[in-house]
Amino acid sequence: MSHLLSKARRLAVAAAATVLFWGASASAATDVRVGFIPVVGAGQLFVIDGEGWARDAGLNLKLTQFESGPAMISALASGTLDAYYGGIGPIMVASARGIEVKVYAATAIEEMTFVGRADFAAQPQAATAAGFKAFSESQGRPLKIATQPPGSVPDTVLRYWLQNVIKADPATYQITAMGIEATQQALLAGAVDAATIREPTLTVVLARDPKSKLLAVGGEMLPNQPGSVLALTGAFVKANEQAAKTIVSLHDRATTLLKDEPNRAAKHLQSGLGKGLTDLATFEKAVVSPASKFVADPMVIKDATKVMQDFQLKAGTLEKAADLNVLFDDSFYRAAAAAR
């Protein structure tokens, strides 16, 4: 009898210890305020959140959506964000302005695409200087192109492609800045002739508008095009170094899942991005589209980032160059890769 009581006490003590452990773990969870752009290129974030990995690792992700990277800069500057999932362009601007933030991982490359519609897309060789000229002359007006605000990756890649790759006459096109959702709506409503878009907008537009056409993919616009990144503020890393390392490690793990199990990942992207309006099949297509090339190693995009930065400096959209040797920190990624 005493043996049974002793065993019961041990079980009770073990159960109490378990409750205390999980209670302590929950109370000790580290808050991470994450700003993100609603694109498939930031897919790792939704996988980390959807799989429950962050919670299991003692991280409490507090997600805030922004319509463009530049819109997140003020949040970074004011100290209301710890982590950033968005285009690298605004991060270069922030770093050049003295905001302490670094790129610890890439998320995807060559996300940006150029899509045309209706009469413009129907032209042979539409995505050429000759195609722009022919359309402008036939319509008696410049080609209307939608993209995100100046300083963003979509705007920068578009202008780089127009000026340095196809070398279109500036008189043949007109660029209008708007948010991601507004760009999709403008394309589908026929308010613009073309746009630079990412997934899942690309899949949505091509499915809903049979007169739309993918005219240029990311690698054609800017080879190894740097897209979205995972950046962390200096203040967060200093205060929570282990949490910062954990985020990068989970990001690396999520990158593998996106590539190896796209349909599993698509469910999390639909939950995080679909808002109940976009079906799962759309995300399943978007995750494996030509515009979805997931990578985690930040050094993969460093050289192309210099190309982008040099272009921005020349164009005047970037006042001061960021020191890329300071901006990029691959130490946490290397540690994560070694621990796979």
Give the strand order, joined by hyphens, for the main sheet.
2-1-3-11-4
Can you tell me the residue ranges where pLDDT is under 50 for at least 5 consecutive residues?
1-8, 10-26
DSSP helix count?
18
Percent range of helical residues: 40-55%
Helix and strand sequence: HEHHEHEHEEEHHEHEHEHEHEHHHHEHHH
Summarize model confidence as the mean pLDDT.
Answer: 90
Q: What's the β-strand tally?
A: 12
* Rough outline: globular
Radius of gyration: 23 Å
- Percentage of residues in DSSP E strands: 15-25%
Sheet/helix structural class: alpha/beta
End-to-end span in angstroms? 50 Å
Largest sheet: 5 strands, mixed
Q: How would you describe this structure to a colleague?
A:
The structure is a single chain. The protein is α/β, with parallel strands linked by helices and 340 residues long. The protein has helices at residues 2-27, 43-50, 53-56, 69-77, 88-96, 118-122, 129-139, 153-165, 180-189, 201-208, 218-221, 234-239, 241-260, 262-273, 280-287, 302-315, 324-327, 331-338, and strands at residues 30-36, 59-65, 83-87, 101-106, 108-109, 113-117, 143-147, 173-177, 194-197, 212-216, 228-233, 293-294. The strands form 3 sheets. It has a 5-stranded mixed β-sheet with strand order 2-1-3-11-4, with helices on both faces. Strands 8-7-9-6-10 form a 5-stranded mixed β-sheet, with helices on both faces. The longest helix has 26 residues, at 2-27. The radius of gyration is 23 Å and the shape is globular. It starts with a helix and ends with a helix. The model is unreliable at 1-8 and 10-26 (pLDDT under 50).
